[in-house]
Amino acid sequence: MRSPAAWLSNLATRRQDRRAAEHREQTKALHLTSLTPEARSRFGRLEMLLASIVKKVENGQVSYREVVRKLDYLLEQFLLLGVKQVEFAEYLDSLRKDRGVLPPSTQKSPGVPSARLIADEQGARQVIAAICGSYRQEILSLEEEGKTEANPHNRALLEKRRELLHRRREYASQIGDIVFNIGHQLKLMDDTFGLINDEIRARSPEQVLNEIDELVSQTDRLTERLQEVEPFESAQP
C-alpha cells in the first residue's frame, strides 16, 4: 500500500501532466490550421507517438514521465515553429511579388506560392537567388547613375537607396535560410520521435532523455535565433 506522501506526489504529477496536455491542446487549437498540410500531417503522427508513450506511463512506468513531459514540450514547439515557418515564407513570397519573380513550379509543389516555398527547397532557392539578383541589378544601376549625377544631394540619396537595397537583399537571403532551417528542424523532430518509438522498449529512460535533451537544445537555439531576427515591419523600405 502506498504512503499518503507517495499518493499525493503521484496526484500532483498527474495534475501537472494534465495541465501540460491542456496547454498543448489550447496551442494546437490556436495554431494547427496555420501550418502547411505536410506539417499538420507530421504533427498528427507525433501526437500518436506521444499518446502511445503516455499509455506506457499510465501502465506504471513512472520513470518515463520526464520523457513524456519533454516530448509534450517539443510538440508545442513544433506547432510554434510551424507557424513561424509559414509567416517567414509568406514574407518571402511578398518579396518575390515585389521583385516580379515567379514562384516555384506547381508541378513539383502544388498549392499557394508561399506553401511552395516551403515544400520545394530547390525551387525556393532559385526564387531567393532571383530576388537577390533583382536587388543586385538595381544596386548596380544606382551606382552607374551616381557616377553621372552632379548634384551632391541627389548623389547622397542614390547612395542611401543603394544601402537600403543591399540590406533588403541580405534580409531576403536570411529569411530564406530561416525557412529552410525550420523545415529541417521539423523533420528532425519527426525522425527523433520515430527513433524513440522504435527503441523505447529497448532503452532506459535515461538514454531516451539524452536523445530528447539534444533535440530540445537544438530547438531552443533555433527559437532564440528567430527572436533575434529584425521585425518584419522595420525591414520594409
Structural class: mainly alpha
Shape: elongated
Counting DSSP E segments of at least 2 residues, the number of strands comes to 0
Mean pLDDT: 84
Provide the helix percentage: over 70%
- SSE ordering: HHHHHHHH
Give structural notes.
It contains eight helices and no strands. The protein is mainly α and 237 residues long. Helix 3 runs parallel beside helix 7 (205-228). The radius of gyration is 24 Å and the shape is elongated.
Write the layout of secondary structure elements.
Elements: H1 4-31, H2 37-58, H3 65-98, H4 113-119, H5 121-148, H6 152-199, H7 205-228, H8 232-235
Quick overview of this protein structure:
By secondary structure, the chain is an all-alpha fold. Helix content is 82%, strand content 0%. Helix 2 (37-58) runs parallel beside helix 6, helix 3 (65-98) runs parallel beside helix 7 (205-228) and helix 6 (152-199) runs antiparallel to helix 7.
